[in-house]
Amino acid sequence: MTVELGLRERKKARTRQLLAETARRLFAERGFEAVSVAEIARAADVSEATVFNYFATKEDLVYHGMEAFEQELLDAVRTRPRGTSVLDAFGAFVTTPRGLLATDDPEAQQALLAISRVVATSPALLARERQILARYADSLAGVLAEETGAGPDDLRPRLAARTLIGLHAVLLDYVRSRLVDDDPDVRRLARDVRREGERAVALLRTGLGDYPSA
Protein backbone atom coordinates (compact mmCIF):
# COMPACT_ATOMS: atom_id res chain seq x y z
CA MET A 1 0.00 0.00 0.00
CA THR A 2 2.84 2.39 0.87
CA VAL A 3 4.62 1.57 -2.38
CA GLU A 4 1.42 2.13 -4.35
CA LEU A 5 0.88 5.48 -2.62
CA GLY A 6 4.47 6.48 -3.36
CA LEU A 7 4.06 5.65 -7.05
CA ARG A 8 0.82 7.60 -7.20
CA GLU A 9 2.38 10.64 -5.58
CA ARG A 10 5.36 10.53 -7.94
CA LYS A 11 3.03 10.30 -10.93
CA LYS A 12 1.06 13.30 -9.66
CA ALA A 13 4.29 15.25 -9.14
CA ARG A 14 5.40 14.45 -12.70
CA THR A 15 2.05 15.56 -14.10
CA ARG A 16 2.18 18.76 -12.10
CA GLN A 17 5.70 19.47 -13.35
CA LEU A 18 4.71 18.72 -16.94
CA LEU A 19 1.80 21.14 -16.78
CA ALA A 20 3.91 23.90 -15.26
CA GLU A 21 6.71 23.46 -17.78
CA THR A 22 4.28 23.33 -20.71
CA ALA A 23 2.51 26.47 -19.52
CA ARG A 24 5.73 28.38 -18.99
CA ARG A 25 6.98 27.44 -22.44
CA LEU A 26 3.77 28.68 -24.06
CA PHE A 27 3.73 31.83 -21.95
CA ALA A 28 7.34 32.55 -22.95
CA GLU A 29 6.49 32.11 -26.62
CA ARG A 30 3.26 34.14 -26.74
CA GLY A 31 2.72 35.95 -23.45
CA PHE A 32 0.57 35.05 -20.47
CA GLU A 33 -2.67 36.66 -21.60
CA ALA A 34 -2.51 35.17 -25.11
CA VAL A 35 -2.46 31.55 -23.91
CA SER A 36 -5.61 29.81 -22.67
CA VAL A 37 -5.82 26.95 -20.18
CA ALA A 38 -7.41 24.84 -22.92
CA GLU A 39 -4.30 25.34 -25.08
CA ILE A 40 -2.05 24.33 -22.20
CA ALA A 41 -4.13 21.19 -21.68
CA ARG A 42 -3.91 20.23 -25.36
CA ALA A 43 -0.15 20.80 -25.45
CA ALA A 44 0.28 18.59 -22.35
CA ASP A 45 -2.16 15.98 -23.71
CA VAL A 46 -4.54 16.21 -20.75
CA SER A 47 -8.02 17.57 -20.22
CA GLU A 48 -8.69 21.14 -19.13
CA ALA A 49 -10.25 19.72 -15.96
CA THR A 50 -6.96 17.98 -15.18
CA VAL A 51 -5.12 21.29 -15.31
CA PHE A 52 -7.52 22.76 -12.75
CA ASN A 53 -7.21 19.66 -10.59
CA TYR A 54 -3.55 20.58 -10.13
CA PHE A 55 -3.70 24.37 -10.33
CA ALA A 56 -6.59 26.42 -9.00
CA THR A 57 -5.91 29.34 -11.34
CA LYS A 58 -4.00 30.00 -14.54
CA GLU A 59 -1.66 32.29 -12.57
CA ASP A 60 -0.73 29.41 -10.28
CA LEU A 61 0.92 27.66 -13.22
CA VAL A 62 3.61 30.34 -12.90
CA TYR A 63 3.66 30.70 -9.11
CA HIS A 64 3.15 27.08 -8.08
CA GLY A 65 6.38 26.92 -6.05
CA MET A 66 5.53 29.88 -3.84
CA GLU A 67 3.79 27.84 -1.12
CA ALA A 68 6.99 25.92 -0.43
CA PHE A 69 8.98 29.17 -0.40
CA GLU A 70 6.56 30.66 2.12
CA GLN A 71 6.99 27.71 4.47
CA GLU A 72 10.78 27.87 4.16
CA LEU A 73 10.71 31.59 4.92
CA LEU A 74 8.57 31.12 8.04
CA ASP A 75 10.75 28.23 9.18
CA ALA A 76 13.86 30.41 8.80
CA VAL A 77 12.32 32.86 11.26
CA ARG A 78 10.91 30.27 13.66
CA THR A 79 14.07 28.16 13.88
CA ARG A 80 16.68 30.93 13.88
CA PRO A 81 19.50 30.46 16.39
CA ARG A 82 19.09 31.92 19.85
CA GLY A 83 20.28 35.53 19.90
CA THR A 84 19.62 36.06 16.18
CA SER A 85 17.15 38.80 15.35
CA VAL A 86 14.20 38.25 13.03
CA LEU A 87 15.68 40.89 10.72
CA ASP A 88 19.02 39.09 10.44
CA ALA A 89 17.40 35.67 9.94
CA PHE A 90 15.02 37.02 7.32
CA GLY A 91 17.75 38.99 5.57
CA ALA A 92 20.03 35.96 5.38
CA PHE A 93 17.21 33.89 3.94
CA VAL A 94 16.12 36.26 1.18
CA THR A 95 19.66 37.16 0.09
CA THR A 96 20.81 33.54 -0.24
CA PRO A 97 20.68 32.46 -3.91
CA ARG A 98 18.26 29.60 -4.46
CA GLY A 99 16.44 27.91 -7.30
CA LEU A 100 17.29 29.13 -10.78
CA LEU A 101 19.36 31.99 -9.35
CA ALA A 102 21.70 29.45 -7.75
CA THR A 103 22.34 27.25 -10.78
CA ASP A 104 25.00 27.33 -13.47
CA ASP A 105 22.77 25.38 -15.87
CA PRO A 106 22.38 27.56 -19.02
CA GLU A 107 18.95 26.10 -19.80
CA ALA A 108 17.71 26.85 -16.29
CA GLN A 109 19.07 30.37 -16.53
CA GLN A 110 17.25 30.89 -19.82
CA ALA A 111 14.07 29.64 -18.16
CA LEU A 112 14.53 32.22 -15.39
CA LEU A 113 15.03 34.94 -17.97
CA ALA A 114 11.97 33.87 -19.96
CA ILE A 115 9.59 33.70 -17.01
CA SER A 116 10.89 37.04 -15.69
CA ARG A 117 9.93 38.65 -18.98
CA VAL A 118 6.52 36.99 -18.92
CA VAL A 119 5.76 38.28 -15.42
CA ALA A 120 7.09 41.77 -16.14
CA THR A 121 4.68 42.19 -19.06
CA SER A 122 1.58 40.67 -17.46
CA PRO A 123 -0.70 42.81 -15.27
CA ALA A 124 -2.49 39.65 -14.12
CA LEU A 125 0.70 37.98 -12.93
CA LEU A 126 1.98 41.11 -11.22
CA ALA A 127 -1.37 41.41 -9.42
CA ARG A 128 -1.18 37.77 -8.35
CA GLU A 129 2.36 38.32 -7.07
CA ARG A 130 1.14 41.20 -4.90
CA GLN A 131 -1.56 38.91 -3.46
CA ILE A 132 1.02 36.26 -2.65
CA LEU A 133 3.32 38.77 -0.97
CA ALA A 134 0.40 40.07 1.09
CA ARG A 135 -0.28 36.50 2.22
CA TYR A 136 3.38 36.13 3.18
CA ALA A 137 3.12 39.28 5.27
CA ASP A 138 -0.01 38.04 7.05
CA SER A 139 1.62 34.67 7.79
CA LEU A 140 4.81 36.29 9.06
CA ALA A 141 2.84 38.73 11.21
CA GLY A 142 1.12 35.74 12.80
CA VAL A 143 4.48 34.17 13.64
CA LEU A 144 5.77 37.42 15.14
CA ALA A 145 2.59 37.99 17.15
CA GLU A 146 2.78 34.46 18.55
CA GLU A 147 6.45 34.85 19.47
CA THR A 148 6.02 38.22 21.15
CA GLY A 149 2.61 37.60 22.67
CA ALA A 150 1.26 40.70 20.94
CA GLY A 151 -2.46 41.33 21.17
CA PRO A 152 -4.78 41.96 18.20
CA ASP A 153 -4.53 45.75 18.65
CA ASP A 154 -0.72 45.73 18.60
CA LEU A 155 0.33 46.93 15.15
CA ARG A 156 4.02 46.12 15.52
CA PRO A 157 3.94 42.51 14.24
CA ARG A 158 2.08 43.60 11.11
CA LEU A 159 4.35 46.59 10.59
CA ALA A 160 7.49 44.47 11.00
CA ALA A 161 6.16 41.72 8.72
CA ARG A 162 5.14 44.12 5.96
CA THR A 163 8.49 45.87 6.16
CA LEU A 164 10.37 42.60 5.83
CA ILE A 165 8.18 41.36 2.98
CA GLY A 166 8.68 44.75 1.39
CA LEU A 167 12.41 44.05 1.39
CA HIS A 168 11.75 40.73 -0.34
CA ALA A 169 9.49 42.44 -2.90
CA VAL A 170 12.15 45.04 -3.70
CA LEU A 171 14.71 42.27 -4.29
CA LEU A 172 12.26 40.45 -6.57
CA ASP A 173 11.80 43.62 -8.60
CA TYR A 174 15.56 44.14 -8.70
CA VAL A 175 16.20 40.65 -10.06
CA ARG A 176 13.42 40.92 -12.62
CA SER A 177 14.47 44.35 -13.87
CA ARG A 178 18.08 43.21 -14.30
CA LEU A 179 17.03 40.13 -16.25
CA VAL A 180 14.49 41.92 -18.39
CA ASP A 181 17.06 44.62 -19.21
CA ASP A 182 19.20 41.90 -20.79
CA ASP A 183 21.70 41.27 -18.02
CA PRO A 184 21.72 37.45 -18.12
CA ASP A 185 24.86 36.90 -16.01
CA VAL A 186 23.06 35.02 -13.23
CA ARG A 187 26.16 34.47 -11.11
CA ARG A 188 26.94 38.19 -11.05
CA LEU A 189 23.29 38.96 -10.39
CA ALA A 190 23.26 36.60 -7.39
CA ARG A 191 26.28 38.44 -5.93
CA ASP A 192 24.60 41.80 -6.50
CA VAL A 193 21.38 40.62 -4.87
CA ARG A 194 23.31 39.61 -1.77
CA ARG A 195 25.17 42.94 -1.68
CA GLU A 196 22.07 45.07 -2.15
CA GLY A 197 20.06 42.92 0.23
CA GLU A 198 22.67 43.28 2.95
CA ARG A 199 22.70 47.07 2.43
CA ALA A 200 18.92 47.12 2.78
CA VAL A 201 19.08 45.04 5.97
CA ALA A 202 21.68 47.44 7.37
CA LEU A 203 19.34 50.34 6.67
CA LEU A 204 16.46 48.61 8.44
CA ARG A 205 18.73 47.71 11.36
CA THR A 206 19.68 51.33 12.00
CA GLY A 207 16.21 52.66 11.22
CA LEU A 208 14.88 55.37 8.93
CA GLY A 209 15.18 58.25 11.39
CA ASP A 210 18.10 59.88 9.59
CA TYR A 211 17.61 58.51 6.06
CA PRO A 212 18.14 60.35 3.85
CA SER A 213 20.03 63.05 5.67
CA ALA A 214 19.64 66.63 4.42
List keywords for this structure.
mainly alpha, Tetracycline Repressor, domain 2, 214 residues, 10 helices, 2 domains
Compact description:
The chain is an all-alpha fold and 214 residues long.
Folded structure, characterized:
With 214 residues, this protein is an all-alpha fold. It has two domains: 2-60, Orthogonal Bundle (Arc Repressor Mutant, subunit A), CATH 1.10.10.60; 65-206, Tetracycline Repressor, domain 2, CATH 1.10.357.10. It is 74% helix and 0% strand. The chain has ten helices and no strands. It is globular, with a radius of gyration of 19 Å. The mean pLDDT is 91.
The CATH superfamily of the largest domain bears the name Tetracycline Repressor, domain 2
From N to C, what is the helix and strand string?
A: HHHHHHHHHH
Fold-level CATH name of the largest domain: Tetracycline Repressor, domain 2
Main sheet record: none
The top level CATH class name of the largest domain: Mainly Alpha
End-to-end C-alpha gap = 70 Å
How many beta strands in the DSSP annotation?
0
Beta content comes to under 5%
Query: Gyration radius, to the nearest Å?
Result: 19 Å
Tell me, what's the shape? Answer: globular
Number of helices: 10
What is the structural class? mainly alpha
Q: What's the CATH architecture of the largest domain?
A: Orthogonal Bundle
When the domains are counted, the total is 2
Low-confidence stretches: none
